[in-house]
Structures
1.
Amino acid sequence: MIHVEQKELVRQLMTGHFMNSIVNIEIGGKSVRTLPKDVAFHPVTDRPTHVDFLRLSADSKVEVAVPVVFINEEKSPGLKKGGVLNVVRHELELVCASDSIPDEIQIDVGGKDVGDAIHISEVTLPKGVTSAITDRDFTIATLVAPSALKSSEGDTTTADVADADADAE
């Protein structure tokens, strides 16, 4: 067991990249490369109470959750028309060498229109990085029509039915 300063741990957790970062821990005068695997939080105060670290060898491959960042939103015709980017996966489960964990995966939404979907097969991953999910071409995000447009269309249909009922009387 080791002690980690809570203030520093909270600071690292707030970066958003803590679970993807190599953490060097000094044990008995030796530096050990580790990867955070789990953080336990106090049920009432939400302060971290325990962290599990995975010891890494120099040539090990690890599975990590890497955040997704969408770029070129201003170049998307669907978003310009008022469409909404519906993010299905905020993180991607990736397998990579422990010394080359990406900070984030950028996905270009330029040229995407309403009704388009972004799948893992369309994403260019860094060299040596593969998806942990290999049995299907899963969806990362979709561009959908704005809900205001959907609800106004729905209201029109409802009004037409109400008018038809009034005409019938």
2.
Amino acid sequence: MHPPLLHQMNSFTPSTLSVAGFECSPRLPQRPRWPAEWERHEATWATWPRNPETWPQNLADARREHAGFLKLIADHEPVRLVAGGNARPSAMASLACTSGVELVDLPSNDAWMRDHGATFAIDQVDQSLVAVNWTYNAWGGKYPPFDLDQRVGSEMAKLTSANLLRCSLVMEGGGLETDGRGTLLTTESCVLDPVRNDGITRQRFETLMAGVLGIERVVWLPGGNIVGDDTDGHIDQIARFLNSRQVAVTQPTHTKDPNFEVEQNNLRAVTAWADKVEDPIDVITLPSPGVVEFSGIRLPASYCNFYLANELVLVPAFGVPQDEVAKGLLKDLFPKRQVHSLPSRNLLWGLGSFHCLTQQQPAVDTIRKTDGAK
């Protein structure tokens, strides 16, 4: 953390963190830490697909793909599936006889748990679970209504007996990526979006992240306008930590692809940061799937949208030749985990994939592990 930010942190009361109009309350963790995704999970949270406007033409197929990856996760850790109201019957039918899946009777507007759900951290003083409930507005108000999704995070805190931390910062979990050791990857195009947070600056954001998640350094990528993406450049479409010393980044496609310049700029930003740190950081490129379409519309396909469950790596497959290349690379990078490439093309029609649809709940009593890919 830079000294000026540390000085600011010392001036806050223990009950509320306030930075130029952005507040988190009613309680701050005394020594927060946001565990990396590869650390041991208590459970995986998800929300059942229910909105036909998100999956016009193929909601049933999207549900089938969703059930497929949940069943695999449930073999390795409990799954807590938000499925209330009219979503419940189809969830029960799709996951009948699947042990390890608990249906949580909560209503929702949509299925993007990574973004509308709580982000779980750990208070290292008493090893208690903290549920950070960001203010959620469906990626800058793009898809109303989202009132039911706004309530999911606080309900997750109740159901897990976590300390609830409400944050007025408009944020989505897909816009944040950590190594569990105080480093955060994010994008300017998402975090500094004035439609989300008018008046936000890098320094204000960094100060909030220090107090809420224990972040010591933020690596800023430009993000940018990725064709087909509606998140304003979420980091989980662009770059992901594999472990504390390796970062995977989407490799630029051919120069005629409209995403080429955006992908190139993000790769350059990650490489520039990795070259400057004291301990070497390896930058691993994952192939771009290229153009993936549904009904003639290009979709935001990315292998960076993989999800790490206990002992597992779940890689989205889009029905293109690069699927096997990405799976092979990740098998080499995660030799101690089972790597599964699962169909995701129907889910992708909703503009997201496995990482967007899940949220990990860390096991608070586990010893921190930093060898996620080894």
